[in-house]
Amino acid sequence: MREAGRISAEALKAVGEAVRPGVTTFELDRIAHACITKHGASSAFLNYNGFPATACVSINDEVIHGIPGRNRVLKEGDLVSVDLGAVYRGYVGDNAATFAAGELSPEAKRLNDTTRESLFEGIKMAVAGGRVGDISEAIQRYCEERGYSVVRDYTGHGVGRKMHEDPCVPNFGTAGRGVRLMPGMVLAIEPMINGGTCAVKVMPDGWTVKTRDGKLSAHFEHTVAITADGPKIMTLL
Ligand code: MG
Predict the structure, then answer these.
(1) For ligand 1, a single-atom ion, which residues have Cβ within 5 Å?
(2) 123 CA → ligand 1 middle, Å
(3) Would you call 224 exposed, middle or buried from its count of C-beta atoms within 10 A (0-12, 13-18, 19+)?
(4) pLDDT tens string 6-21
(5) How many CA atoms lie within 13 A of 187 on its CB side?
(6) What distance in angstroms lies between residue 94's CA and the mean position of ligand 1's atoms?
(7) Of 108, 124, 141, 179, whose CB neighbour count within 10 A is largest?
């Protein structure tokens, strides 16, 4: 899982470095695909329930599951969420980050920083003997205290030989509740945080999820193993 995670992280970094005004999300997807296959891995997303690309690329009010396209050209100030995963020797790595195309507005930057920070607040709670709800509450509190809302309709998840395994890891909940965390469990922790309402809608393409009020959304994700020595992030370089 460490190797699958490292490949996923490398691909995400390569895509992030390519995010700038004028680039198409299709080009970003090609970069992700090249990086994953170069390492002898395959995309965890391509053809998953019919998803047509290697990476999900979701811009501004798009929350998750955006489909890359040749006609999707990034503009100055776009908030660009990229989610991708690699399968290597039968194990899956899953990670996401939100990047700036050019210079973000102060509003977008604050949302993005808060979402990234909330992921690490959640990871801190991924310790043996705790509960899934400890992670959920830490993320929810951090974001709501700063005036943001937590997407309810999509959650983090267990990850291993399959991309989506039990347990469900919501970004909202109550500490001390839910599945007990034990060494050897691996979770994809992934806050999806909105600038306005938590309500979302799925677009007619059947994939792209947008905020209902058209306000911005950000997304960060790491694959995290629970060990006797505390949380270990698999998706680091
Ligand atoms: Mg995930």
Answers:
(1) 94, 188
(2) 14
(3) buried
(4) 999 999 999 999 999 9
(5) 32
(6) 6
(7) 108
